[in-house]
Fold this protein.
Amino acid sequence: MSIYQFQVNKMDGSSVPLSAYQGKLLVIVNTASQCSYSRQFADLQQLYENYREQGLEILAFPCNQFNDKEPDRNAEVERYCRGTFGVTFPLFEKVEVRGAGAHPLFQYLTQQAPFQGFDTQSSSGQWMDDFLQNKYPDIYAGDGVKWNFTKFVIDRHGHVAARYETTTEIKDMEPAIQSLL
């Protein structure tokens, strides 16, 4: 099985088969425009601009499951992300990424790439680890998406190649992306 079996919806509600991205290297990321990690939009956009011609696509899925950081409707989310962050990569309709209502794509991604923990050698990784364990132990438990801006790298064959947690900066993913291109 690969991600190509899944369908997702654009912001306008029209359905897109992920097989439309066959042969591309993908970064699938759950986003929230009002989250403090939304600063990663700029770096994701730069990554997209740097490698799009080589076959990279970034697929962003807004989500409102973590501290209500994406409360607006799809049209407002898209307008804000494009206007504020200059995002040109595809934005899809809001989804749930964890729990019983998680979109099947995210259920698959987390099964294929289980949670390996945060990098507690970094201050941001240690902070997020402590924050979730103390404040949201139910989110910390298991392999589900832990927070906004969890990033999954999908190889050109539709298989999950890597998972990067919220606190992983885009520049730290770049060597793996370069090697897969």
User: Anything to note?
Assistant: Helices lie at 40-51, 74-85, 104-112, 123-135, 137-140, 170-180.
